[in-house]
UniProtKB/TrEMBL annotation:
GO molecular function terms listed in the Swiss-Prot or TrEMBL record: L-methionine-(R)-S-oxide reductase activity; metal ion binding; peptide-methionine (R)-S-oxide reductase activity
Enzyme class, UniProt record, top EC level: oxidoreductase
Source organism, top-level taxon: Eukaryota
Catalysed reactions, as listed in the record: L-methionyl-[protein] + [thioredoxin]-disulfide + H2O = L-methionyl-(R)-S-oxide-[protein] + [thioredoxin]-dithiol; [thioredoxin]-disulfide + L-methionine + H2O = L-methionine (R)-S-oxide + [thioredoxin]-dithiol
Named cofactor requirement(s): Zn(2+)
EC annotation from Swiss-Prot or TrEMBL: 1.8.4.12
Keyword Lyase attributed: no
Protein name: Peptide-methionine (R)-S-oxide reductase
Organism listed in the record: Phallusia mammillata
Length: 170
């Protein structure tokens, strides 16, 4: 049996030249199955641990401005992890410069790393990418990427941490 605690995500949408708050989604905050908690951190804990930008991006489905993210130009070898729960999401070997202003990857580190969801928040359909473990918003995936997948995972730096490979691992 599953039980959900829900939260509403409110976005500002432009209507007749003015920004108005609109509830865009109701998302599960905590999933409990057979007594196992999948995501147990509450908003207050996250607000203390994350920066304002990290919280806005991961919990309120925000987007950092292009060309401002910490990892957009990162060329170091290592793994990119979820800033909220630490799950490995992407490998540096799958990263490329898409020119979009955000870190771009042609695939996640594994099939179970991310979840893809339909996002219609801007009046068009896109595919949102969230961490499969904690459901933190990461970015979006588009079908204009390079071989071998043809996909571009356009990810906010604010949703990531980076573990650089040690010299003995290179």
């Amino acid at each position: 049996m599953y039980r959900f605690c829900l939260r509403t995500v409110v976005r500002l949408t432009k209507v007749d030249g003015s920004l108005v708050p609109v509830a865009s989604a109701v998302l599960p905050r905590v999933l409990i199955s057979s007594g196992t908690i999948k995501m147990a951190q509450n908003d207050e804990e996250l607000k203390k641990r994350l920066t304002t930008l990290q919280y806005r991006v991961t919990q309120e489905h925000g987007t950092e401005p292009p060309f401002t993210g910490k990892y957009e130009k990162n060329k170091k070898e290592g793994t990119y992890k979820c800033i909220v729960c630490g799950t490995e999401l992407f490998k540096s070997g799958h990263k490329y410069d898409s020119g979009s202003g955000w870190p771009s990857f042609y695939q996640p580190s594994g099939k179970e790393a991310v979840e893809e969801r339909t996002d219609k928040s801007l009046g068009r359909s896109r595919t949102e990418v969230v961490c499969n473990k904690c459901k933190a918003h990461l970015g979006h995936v588009f079908n204009d990427g390079p071989a071998p997948t043809g996909e571009r995972y356009c990810i906010n730096s604010a949703s990531l941490s980076f573990d650089q490979k040690k010299k003995d691992e290179l």
